[in-house]
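User: What would this chain look like folded?
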Amino acid sequence: MSRIIFIVLLLAGAAYVALSCGSLPATVASHFDGTGSATGFMPRQTYEAFTLALLLGMPLLAVFGMSRAYRRKDGRLKLPNGDYWLAPERRERSVAFLLVHAQWFGCLLVLLVCRVHWMVLQANALQPPLLPYATAMGTLVLFFLGVAVWFGVLMLRFRRSADR
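Assistant: Here's the prediction, encoded as structure tokens.
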């Protein structure tokens, strides 16, 4: 199920970026300082290509990179209480969990890039372009909360075997 959700989010995110970039001005404010003022600009086509590359590349790289690392058989996979969880009788189940967990992390990354793109759309609708500080900080807080939950689930799953 996580794989399907990850793929659907990737495709929906790519469609969202591709379909919404047409509403941006020819020169897009794409970088903002701490006050929300635009400090960097790029042509709309470059912004769209960059955002699509980030949207697809970052989550896919993270998921495939983690998946490759988790499937290693050379014993270099490190987990809390790894001796227990990577014992031959539990290794396959542990790796299966890690693969699903990597896909959920990929979902978080897709959502982050889509949210940042939405903020760029909103900022460029104003003259001069302005990125609201509260929106940017709220996005970062939500993303880091998501990462904290993701990490907490990982730690709970691989807590000591006697605690299960």
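The beta strands are 27-32, 38-43. If you want, I can go into more detail on any region.
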